[in-house]
Design brief:
This protein is mostly helical. Helices cover 77% and strands 0% of the residues. The chain folds into two domains: 5-77, Orthogonal Bundle (Rna Polymerase Sigma Factor, Chain: A), CATH 1.10.1740.10; 83-236, Butyryl-CoA Dehydrogenase, subunit A, domain 3. The protein starts with a helix and ends with a helix.
Length: 237
Amino acid sequence: MGLDFERIMQYLPLVKQIAQRIYERVPKGLVQFEDLLQAGILGLIEAAKRYDPKRGIKFEGFAHFRIKGAILDELRAHDLLPRTLRKKVKVLEDAYLKLERRLGRVPSLEELASELGLSSEALEKEFRQFLFLEVVSFDGLIEGLSGEKLEEMLLESSSKDPLELLGLSELRDRLAEAIEELPERHKLVLSLYYFEELTMKEIALVLEISEGRVSQIHSEAILALRAKLRRSYEESS
């Protein structure tokens, strides 16, 4: 099947939009915007090659996942995540799970800081680093648990055999269960950010809170999901 160059040109602005959103979440100086843009264009070309309208998926949605996946792969290829940062996130996850078991609810930022022997300001700094880790690694967590990239899991499940589908269905159920346990505001921020694709600034305006608070809620939610999913799989293994 030949490439649909007209379609590729039509969706180049989508590539730029996705690349810009991701670039804004990456610490300055670690990667060039042009590198992310180029990766996204390659993802769009791959989407044009592989798109099959018979599967009942709109091209824009299919391309969005391919573009984003290609850009995240480019970030992973740069290996921008220091081992020390990965260890810090493991410490945060362990502290979160310990507190959640003790309190029987989602711990607050202040409680988590106290558990770690940090000030709230120091923990917020850790969260800012964690926000970058989430950009590259939350899909990576899903991939590590299921063997599938998140976008592949969502888009290509119709082509998988029943045993594979059973595993993916279990992952979806665990993810849905983990999200359901979050406080309502955390669920709302995740929905606005990932499904409605609002920026942190836009979410702040909608919820009438500061952009910094939105970022904090987002990081708390991602930390909770990572910790809950890890615990779920460790308990069943």
